[in-house]
Amino acid sequence: MALVEALLPEFDHEMSLTRKILERVPEDRFDWKPHQKSYSLGQLAQHVATIPMWGSVTLNESEIDIGGAERPAPIDSRSALLKLFDGHVEGARAALVGKTDAEFKAPWTLKNSGHVVFSMPKASVWRSFVISHLIHHRAQLGVYLRMQDVPLPAMYGPTADEPG
Predict the structure, then answer these.
(1) Is pLDDT of 106 > 80?
(2) Which strands sit side by side in the sheet containing 107-112, from one edge to the other?
(3) What is the per-residue pLDDT for 35?
(4) DSSP summary character for residue 127
(5) 14, 134 contact by CB (below 8 A)
């Protein structure tokens, strides 16, 4: 079995779970923060919605230098948040479809102003920097939502709010 055949179902599953939680983000609380050093709820949700973009960058490029990159304009509505997410998911999925095992073995490098942050095979970057990174921040978003008494969707099983 080609690696992409194993990655596609996982990608589709994780993206559907991520969309479920993004659909719960309350627009009237985008500015809320659990701590002064934390992202706001809106910033964290936007970060989660943007992470799938790294899938297409990883698979279509050999490196990226984020030094001097501008921060995206803040999202101010749930519909804009979901549109952003859906677009990045579509692009990442399109980049994933048809990739060969050899393409996944090619190196990918993240740089910051010329300094190498890390360099790994694209398969490792896909798993850690795209999927695991997304799951990490999605879990943070779940904590933010719980702190705001927003019912959490069932994901890998039931939550206190949904039977699963």
Answers:
(1) yes
(2) 63-65, 107-112, 115-121
(3) 97
(4) I
(5) yes
Assigned token pair, 161? 């709010």
Tell me what the pLDDT averaged over the chain comes to: 96
pLDDT in tens, 28-39: 999 999 999 999
CB-CB neighbours of 109 under 10 Å: 15
- Cβ atoms of 126 and 135 within 8 Å: the answer is no
Neighbours of 64 (CB within 10 A): 16
pLDDT of residue 71: 87
pLDDT at residue number 164? 76
Look up residue 114 and give its two tokens.
């010329």
Tokens 């904590």 found at: 143
Nearest-angstrom CA–CA distance, 14 and 21 = 11
User: pTM for the whole thing?
Assistant: 0.95
Farthest-apart Cα atoms in the chain, separation? 49
CA 146 to chain centre: 20
Q: Give the 3-state secondary structure of 3-64.
A: HHHHHHHHHHHHHHHHHHHHCCCCHHHCCCCCCCCCCCHHHHHHHHHHCCHHHHHHHHCCEE
